[in-house]
Amino acid sequence: MPRVLYLSSGGEDYLSDGVLHGLKSLLGADVVDVPRRDPLYAGLDPDYRGQLYGRGFTLADRLPDLPVDRDRPLLRAVNGEFDLVVFGDIWQGWGWWAQFRPHLQALRATNTKLVALDGGDGPVMYPYGPSWIKQMRPWPLPRAHGRVDAFFKRELSPLTARIRYFGLLPGGVASRALARHVTPIAFSIPEDALATGDEPKTQLLATHTVDPEVATLVDAGEAGRYHFSTEADYYADMRAAKFCVTMRKAGWEALRHYEIAAQGCVPCFRDRDAKPALSAPFGLNDTNSIAYDDARALLDRLNGMSDEEYARLRAGALAWALANTTTARARQVLAAVGLDAGP
Length: 343
Hints:
This protein is of the alpha/beta class. The protein has two domains: 4-187 and 326-336, no CATH class; 192-322, Glycogen Phosphorylase B (Rossmann fold, 3-Layer(aba) Sandwich). It has helices spanning 14-27, 46-51, 73-78, 94-100, 104-109, 130-135, 158-164, 171-179, 212-217, 231-240, 255-262, 295-304, 307-322, 326-336; strands at 4-7, 31-34, 84-87, 113-118, 150-153, 182-184, 203-205, 241-246, 266-270, 290-292. The strands form two sheets. It has a six-stranded parallel sheet with strand order 2-1-3-4-5-6, with helices on both faces. Strand 8, helix 11 (255-262) and strand 9 (266-270) form a beta-alpha-beta unit. The longest helix is centred in the last third of the chain and has 16 residues, at 307-322. The radius of gyration is 21 Å and the shape is globular.
């Protein structure tokens, strides 16, 4: 089985945490996370969990805490102890990349593969963009794409390529050049968070409503406000609902899309079809979700939907969630560098 060194920033990042959860689920103690991603492990203090973004729902407090040696990660990697080194959050954890960059030749000599994950909310990739360039010293920071074996970016769009090449290349040329080094990637959800699909439906919409226009029409209170203090209550509410509203926030991708589908609830995604093709989430379409741009028209459609159409959408949503588990995402990352976690 592959041995993996997983270098995180120590901060919250759903892309990084999802991939780490998947790798740990597949490979157990053969994944060495440095620093230890405390929120992901079972037995998390409830008060600490309540301070996490999103209250730690879905990814936190799940992994068994297997004994792992986290000492001297750089030296051990250079000596060939690991098959793969993952820079889990290249934006916040670029310091790891700066430390490893001078040792690329030694790492290549031991056939150690390198992967970088860019989970930033915006389309600008590490280490580009005006605000980044102005703030960081020294600059330029060492770029990772083209130097690691696989570079994954979550919020990809034509703007990503234009900024990467400083506007010097035509749009199509820039996008094709970037595609040689950068691969799209998406969030994921633990498989044990999925519903069975047989839960009875007792309400039209889930309580937590992020679209202010929909929230006003259904008298759901302040849009985006947390309604639940526990993950179990949050999931139970979605499992009892036929539909749940989601939308673009800081970026197009949100863990909420996966949480909704995983509970056997059909996502209603505002402006879904305006999403850039290379930006996550991927695979949401008319077979597993509903696109809308007008709240009142959405409610009319939901209230008039046949049982047969709803059953198809519900099954499609669950199938989509199952295709986007953390283990599926971890296998995607391993496959990109020619590694396999087995059956």
